[in-house]
Amino acid sequence: MMVTLDLDALDLRDGQRVLDLGCGRGRHSHAFYWHEKALDVTMLDLSLEDLKGAIDGFFELPPPPAEPPRSAVWCVGDAGRLPYADDSFDVVICSEVLEHLPDVDAALREIARITKPGGKFACSVPRYWPEAICWALSEGYQNTPGGHVRIFKTGQLRSQVEAHGFSSFKRHWAHALHSPYWWLRCAKWDRQEQSRTVAAYRKLLEWDLLSKPRVTRWTEAALNPIMGKSVALYFDKEAA
Prior knowledge:
By secondary structure, this protein is α/β, with parallel strands linked by helices. The protein has a single domain, classed as Vaccinia Virus protein VP39 (Rossmann fold, 3-Layer(aba) Sandwich). It contains nine helices and seven strands. The chain has a seven-stranded mixed sheet with strand order 3-2-1-4-5-7-6, with helices on both faces.
């Protein structure tokens, strides 16, 4: 399971209500549900097909501890019009989502509304310069339906989130080994499915994900500050 955010940075506690906004196929939702803390996990995504994949994941993994009790619920929804009451969640995450949205501020207003005072918000987006290389290499990457519509600079995104009543407390980078993979895909965009080089790199990443060998873990940890594909930011919401 490839998780971008550091869940331990979120000060999770038994019984907290957590929202995975734009959950996709549920990689962070599954990590929350199987976390050592018993959490009530809510998953929301605009894509019903992705949600179905996320739901399937709950039945493919071994059951979590029975005690303390935990739960998982899901729904289809729009990040700009969330179907939750004010101050509903202790923790909200939004991983690799904001770069897809036509109106980021609308989503951030909703996130601020539903996060409890003193709660936490974490997000990740593609890092500026690795993403800019992808855009430069391929018009197809830029214009993929449902793809990325903007590139964030880290300081810009931090300020944009803080304008909605949050304060930043942590930043890190992730997935350095994925940056060259995406550059390679973009360079061979129209023929990437036939490329042996792309296929070989994909197999390397799959092996790394499943086997987690020390050599690649150490290599990626060393390279993340330099060329991590994603940047992750963590925030506290102002207390009441």
